[in-house]
Specification:
single chain, Rossmann fold, SIR2/SIRT2 'Small Domain', 3-stranded antiparallel sheet, elongated
Length: 277
């Protein structure tokens, strides 16, 4: 019982330290990974390989070469995953990050997730590092990168077999996500590095910290002298250099953290009022 009490006190102390850092911050960068989406019931890439899809290697489902070789197979795989995303809702972790926008002047979410749930929750500034599964684009990007196509409307109107054809060039339409072997969108990556360098605090939630180049962003923030806070149920590639580690899923940890930030802001405001009166 004594051990449990000490653990609880340690957790509360870490939460208070993290809340204090966030309450003082003028700019916050939040890096999110698959763990955040998993709490909304969205399986990770490999977890989604069940049933019909268990027999396929990722290289057969998520590379430009695979799409050229078998466009229907790859399109159908992503349609299956798209349906999982459409049926999902933001969880309490997503919503807590939206609340932080009321408490920190500038909040930018840098996400590796492709489900659009941060935007659905209400986050106003989201940088999608790996694209968005809800969008489609011309495989050839015939009118610039990306040449976005409304694939749903295209399929509905023309009743084409999947995948649909680009109305501009006649080539195939593909998901607007980053596949293995492809580079991240230049503008998104540049913005992510800038946010990591300029923030006061970086909050990392639900990522393994091993998928590059996104995994390098916490190190960029740390190297620039910023406070790095990690929220994760398990140790990650970031744990060794994080300043504060709050162990647990984002959906449980973030609401508590946000409430402590709110309390810390109120305390600071009262103290400031007293000092000027």
């Amino acid at each position: 019982m004594l051990s449990s009490l000490r653990h609880s006190r340690a957790v509360n102390d870490l939460t208070e330290q993290a809340a204090s850092a966030l309450a003082r911050a003028r700019s916050l960068a939040v890096l999110t990974g698959a763990g955040v989406s998993k709490e909304s019931g969205i399986p990770t890439f490999r977890e989604a390989q069940t049933g019909l899809w268990v027999q396929y290697d990722p290289q057969e489902l998520a590379t430009p070469q695979a799409f050229r070789h078998n466009p229907k197979l790859v399109w159908d795989w992503y349609e299956y995953r798209r349906q999982l995303v459409v049926e999902a809702n933001p969880n309490s972790g997503h919503l807590a990050l939206v609340e932080l926008e009321q408490l920190v002047p500038r909040v930018v979410v840098l996400t590796q997730n492709v489900d659009g749930l941060h935007q659905a929750a209400g986050s106003s500034d989201v940088v999608e590092l790996h694209g968005n599964l809800r969008r489609s684009k011309c495989f050839a990007n015939c009118r610039g990168d990306p040449t976005l196509i409304d694939a749903t409307a295209l399929l509905s109107e023309s009743r084409q077999a999947s995948p649909p054809r680009c109305p501009h060039c006649g080539g195939y339409v593909r998901p607007d996500v980053v596949w293995f072997g492809e580079t991240l969108p230049e503008a998104a990556l540049s913005r992510a590095y800038q946010a990591s360098e300029e923030c006061d605090v970086m909050l990392i939630v639900g990522t393994s910290g091993v998928v590059h180049p996104a995994a390098a962003l916490p190190a960029v923030a740390k190297g620039a002298g910023k406070t790095v806070i990690e929220v994760n149920p398990e140790p990650s590639g970031i744990t060794s250099f994080a300043d504060l580690i709050l162990q647990g899923p984002g959906g449980e940890v973030l609401p508590r953290l946000v409430e402590r930030v709110r309390q810390a802001k109120c305390t600071r405001a009262v103290a400031a009022t007293r000092s000027t009166s």
